Amino acid sequence: MSELRKANSDRPFFLTLPVVGWIDVFTRNDYCDEFIRNLEYCRKNKGLKVYAYCIMSNHIHLIAAHNDGKLPDVIRDLKSYTAKRIIERISNNLQESRKEWLLYLFNFLRTIPAKTAHISFGKKQVSQLNYTHPKYLIRK
After folding, report:
1. Helices (H) and strands (E) in the chain, counts
2. Of 60, 52, 13, 70, nearest in space to 34 by CA
3. Neighbours of 113 (CB within 10 A)
4. Contact between residue 57 and residue 32 where contact means Cβ atoms under 8 Å apart
5. Which fold has domain 8-113?
6. For a 10 Å CB count at each end of the chain, is N or C smaller?
7. What pTM value is reported for the model?
């Protein structure tokens, strides 16, 4: 991968974090709140700089940076921990009408190789932001 595409600088990056299989998980406030709590933890304790985020039903858009160029590591930890916590919340939620279906899909999609499934397995899409506002232009 070229150095241009790697999120190893301190500049902000636009990330899309899809749910495996594009399953509509974030239709429940409880699961959105879990992501926000974990994002806040990463901001306070791991040095994540969050500029903006948007939670959609089956993916999250995030504009973030890390001063030490460790954005991929922090995002990896955020995604992994959040996924485990949301699956735990689904399992323990007596009001979740889609519990069996969601848990079945998560388990099933985890066992299929990504190339055969033709769906996203939560890999982040990263692209560097190009600022156009004069306040943010970097002058050489």
Report:
1. 4, 4
2. 60
3. 7
4. no
5. Alpha-Beta Plaits (3.30.70)
6. C
7. 0.76
Cβ neighbors of 109 (< 8 A, separation 6 or more) are: 20, 21, 117, 119, 121
CB 78 within 8 A of CB 43: no
Other Cβ atoms less than 10 A from the Cβ of 39: the count is: 19
Rounded distance between C-alpha atoms, residue 54 and residue 116, angstroms: 30
Distance from C-alpha of 11 to C-alpha of 107, rounded to nearest angstrom: 36
Answer whether 57's CB lies under 8 Å from 26's CB. yes
Written as six digits, the tokens of 130 are: 């190009």
What are the extents of the domains in the chain?
A: 8-113
Question: What residue ranges in 10-124 does DSSP mark as E strands?
Answer: 13-18, 48-55, 59-66
Summarize pLDDT for 13-38 with one digit per residue, the tens. Answer: 999 999 998 999 999 999 999 999 99
